[in-house]
Amino acid sequence: MDQVKAATIVLHGANDTNVPLVEAEQVVTNLKHRGVPVEYVLFPDEDHGWRKVSNRIHSTVEITSWFVKYLGVPKQDAAK
User: Fold this and answer.
1) For residue 3, is it within any domain?
2) Is residue 59 part of a domain?
3) What is the pLDDT of residue 70?
4) Residue among 59, 3, 12 at smallest CA distance from 31
5) What is the pLDDT of residues 18-75, one digit of tens each?
6) If DSSP states are collapsed to H, E and C, what string results for the chain?
7) Which residues pair with 49 in a beta bridge?
8) In this structure, which long-range contacts are made by residues 29-33, counting pairs with CB atoms below 8 Å and at least 24 apart in sequence?
């Protein structure tokens, strides 16, 4: 983690048994502490992967927003 400098998004299920919640929170804390832009989205009712359609939609919106924020939208496409 000490080499990550790029803006990062972390999406995590609170009930994940493959990757404990504490590990996702450590990543977020480390990045914030070092001034790396980080977005953290926690899904309290999911585990390792999204099974609920509403959470799939939510994660897609969050990821899309992250791309727009950190990669930008070309001006000619902004009006569409």
Assistant:
1) no
2) yes
3) 92
4) 3
5) 999 999 999 999 999 999 999 999 999 999 999 999 999 999 999 999 999 998 876 6
6) CCCCCCCEEEEEECCCCCCCHHHHHHHHHHHHHCCCCEEEEEECCCECECCCHHHHHHHHHHHHHHHHHHHCCCHHHHCC
7) 47
8) 30/1, 30/2, 31/1, 31/4
pLDDT value, residue 1: 85
pTM: 0.85
Q: Is residue 20 part of a domain?
A: yes
Number of domains present in the structure of the chain: 1
Asked whether residue 43 is domain-assigned, the answer is: yes
Domain range for 43 is 8-75
